[in-house]
Design goal:
Radius of gyration: 21 Å
Number of strands: 0
Structural class: mainly alpha
Order of helices and strands: HH
Amino acid sequence: DGETGILVPVRDPGALVTALRQLVAHSEIRRRMGEAARQRIARISALSAYGAHLAQLMRDISTDRPCPTT
């Protein structure tokens, strides 16, 4: 909460309005949260790509197929 977005309770429109007003009023908060979210997605994507590559290498090893060089 507060790092990449604002959490609000379910079915609490007042809390949602308060969170949205905070974001509308404070461009620095929007910028900081947006940047943190972008970095988080980049990190997750990099880990996902690495995991997929590692899984393919393990499949190649288990089937005696030649491993790619990249």
